[in-house]
Amino acid sequence: MQAMPRPCSRKAGFVIGRMDQTPPTMTPAARAEQVALLTRIEERLRWLSSWTVHNANNLRPKRDGLKVGGHQASCASMTAIMTALYFHALGPRDKVAVKPHAGPVLHAIHYLLGEQTREKLEAFRGLGGVQSYPSRTKDTIPVDFSTGSVGLGVAVTAFSSLVQDYLVAHGQLAEQDTGRMIALMGDAELDEGNIYECLIEGYKHDLRNCWWIVDYNRQSLDATTADRMFRRFDDIFETCGWRVVTLKHGRLQREAFARPGGTALEAWIENCPNADFAVLTYLGGAAWRERLERDLAGVPGVADLLAAHDDAALARLMTNLGGHCIETLLDAFDGATGDQPTLFIAYTVKGYGLPLAGHKDNHSGMMNTAQIEGLRDELGIAPGEEWDKWAGLGDNLAARLEALVKDSPIARKVAEHRAPPVAVPARLPVPEGAVQSTQAAFGKVLYDLAKSDAALADRIVTTAPDVTQTTNLGAFVNQRGLFRRQELADVFQKARIPSAQKWSAHEAGQHIELGIAENNFFLALTSLGLAAPHFGTRLLPVGTVYDPFIARGLDALNYGCYQDARFLLVGTPSGITLAGEGGAHQSINTPLIGMGQPGLESFEPAFADEVALLMGWAFQHMQDEDGSSVYLRLTTRQIAQQPRVDASWEAGALAGAYWLREPTQGARAAIVYSGAVAPEALAAWEQLRDDIPGLGLLAVTSPDRLHREWSAARAARWNGSARRKSHVEALLGQLAPGAGLVTVLDGSPAALSWLGGVRGHRVSPLGTDRFGQTGDLPDLYRTYRLDSEAIIDAMAELFL
Ligand SMILES: Cc1ncc(C[n+]2csc(CCOP(=O)(O)OP(=O)(O)O)c2C)c(N)n1
Ligand SMILES: [Mg+2]
Hints:
By secondary structure, the chain is of the alpha/beta class. It is 41% helix and 12% strand.
């Protein structure tokens, strides 16, 4: 097993077990009793998680021939860590992201608590049953953070710590109501780049109250992990301001090291490669003995030390690593006082206590029937009593364990509560100007809010990955300031150097400035967007990003939406309309991302009044029980605004489309556009209106909402809800059967081409389906067929 370098020599890093600690409030006898009881709980969690997976794979009837799956070895690797955390160290307001494949352990904990049912455990990975990986929205037990995509559940805890600090600084949360944000993580998660992006951002923001506990089993999915790299992790974390606590050896090992021959044994363990350690763990006591006798032949004391252990005891000794020793874990957690972010590196064995222990293929490996029955017998559980919480332990012990569980920190965990709503003004004022871009309009709406005393304005938090100015957030930030726990003067302003950006940073600031790391950006939005359920007080996060770089953080965006975080995402500028910036900055597929992403309502407005309307709607929708996050795809292209005679267009704009030029009933064609190409669509409509009587011009503000509602209306026929006509069916129903539609947007044409399927209309879809390039707008629109000539040509073709 590879050593951590110089673990005791640093200010912040230390190895638990060099000095044994007992918390001052507990006598050694009471601690011993606690350890004995928690050891029993650990066994129960190991058993119940194993049995849950076994039942789902081997006992529950199968109908589809598919593997059900589950991770017994990954669970067993963490049961002691989770026992010590949930039944001892957890504070009532701490929140935990659980390593995804240890999900069954979390459910077993809640089963012991009486908060999870046997039926749900039996239905593990089945419809309505316990989810494979902890899910805030699908599981019925309290889940603080969903996990599944490794790395994201770890980093999100750091952003939630920042959000907690933000709320304290803004008087929305009392300091005594804060907790630690804790990630229980696999060691292979340390390979994910987003972890390091998060470390850097955390350091910049003075991260505190964050624990990451690494299940350091030195195995990933495929392999035993590289020996070399693990020497570096404590360096990296300490550099970023973290305290590193290494839990390498359990009490048994530490006691053995103190005996004659023990120093040699300790040194041997230090130098044992990860793969060798895993192989010997799998092979067991006899193999350990043979290897140690060979490697340590003639070393004084070793022969006696080995002889004092039978094979089973030797295997127990050699795998008695810090992460499996309850006592060591309790000491480590108790010793980590203060608010410095802390990384616990808890050495473990993947599959500890199971016949799978150490095998390189154990990630998805499962115990066979004989093996699980062997484990059951070993734990004294009678056949048929597998789901009994305390089977085989006797009434007295069972009662003591029941009492411990009922009085444990997890039983005292503060439940999530509903946050009161933040009032949204009936309408947000429309920015003035005959010619405007949607991006500028967005900035002006926020600026007007920032200057107002609306309650809503105080709850808006803006953030951007180093694109605050170029996405028009600057005016809001000038008004409301940057958020920093420590005040930072704007040095340029003090020196009277003229600049449009006056960015002083202070506790009351409402903009969180991030470095260029879109993963961080989306995780920050996720944490901000979970403020209501997490902390009982609402924030309305608004994040801006260059539209093409949404793709950089796509998994984190999906992660935020999956756990129902609520934020307003603004992708701007977008499309080839960005012209001079060229192909690397011109987004193409984001309309499809917006349509395809659940939990995110996507819009592409064209006019400033649409922007104001949609933003007001978004701030409400982000708070609604059945609401979601919202995405606006905007542009810097300035276009002439539309005169409006009344507000009748608004309902349609919110539903996804409205007639900018109403067709006559039974008209034979319509032009359909989205976003920045509105002027081209209008110009083509003007030119064609005499040739095609009653020609319609449909403004599509949201292909996403149109399609979603169309699908829902059709599904209503099957799921028993009332059959109704969807908005898009009603709109297109005004045209003649077989009418022609030319659709156009600055993005993937597929975002609108599906409209032909609604009523069977013939469609000629225009849009960008190849990379853009530099050029001015006339050249680019001509080259990519987004100009009015292209629309007219396409229409002509439909009528040929
Ligand atoms: C982003 C992402 N990539 C790949 C996977 C598939 N996957 C699940 S667990 C895992 C390896 C986990 O190893 P480790 O974190 O060390 O956990 P252990 O099971 O060893 O405790 C992988 C690659 C995933 N869940 N998420
Ligand atoms: Mg691992």
